[in-house]
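Recall that a protein's primary structure is simply its ordered list of amino acids. Everything else, from secondary elements to tertiary packing, is in principle encoded there. The following example makes that idea concrete.
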Amino acid sequence: MSTASHSADGDAIRVLAFDVFGTVVDWRGSIINELSAAWPLLDAAAMADAWRAGYQPAMAKVRGGQLGWTKIDDLHRGILEELLPRFGLEHLDEAERRHLNRVWHRLDPWPDSVAGLERMRERFILTPMSNGNIGLLTEMAKRAGLPWDCVLSAEVFRHYKPDPETYLGVCDVFDIAPSQMLMVAAHVDDLVAAGQCGCRTAFVARPLEYGPDVTPRSAAPGQFDFQATDMVDLAAQLERVQPEPYPARRRQTGA
């Protein structure tokens, strides 16, 4: 941990914003499990990887003006339509395609995520800051038990991460300085972009995000304000920075 601990109230962290896909939930393992259960002969890992690989190019079409603003559910559906013939699933009807596309609403959290988030929520406001759309993130949280205080997404700001409008938009919603917002992610580029906006940054390692055969890019020592092995570890580090629970909770408990 570097200089993230600031004693002045005006510079204290108030809001934690989280990347979701890969950081809070295991998108790859969840999709593989569901695909394998439905179609045992399918190369589920290859299809999950191909679906995710279409994500950045699809967003680039929006950024480049080939598409108007498009929520992630619809981008996922467009990618899926291209993949169905490739994986022998072109026979699926509309209801089956819609259900399959909503697998992104049914992603499972990493084993440490819920416990870590619940601890952090004692001291901070928690929100996702994901490229996922609001409906997707809300249904995911309801199913997985993710204890957000509210749900923010790229859909609110009509910009995808890593555009600065996303990180600064969170700060504007809560009327805080960028230094009072901590962006939490397993992705270096996400955190670098948030840091360039003046936000605090926390890297959470997710070595299995892309499966056992792919080593994701890791943070360099001291690159970010916090570096944690998982959400519970991050919660423990933040408790040393902010030992008292969130003020409203202190009043309710009479502490």
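The chain is about 45% helix and 10% strand. The CA atoms of residues 29 and 212 lie 11 Å apart.
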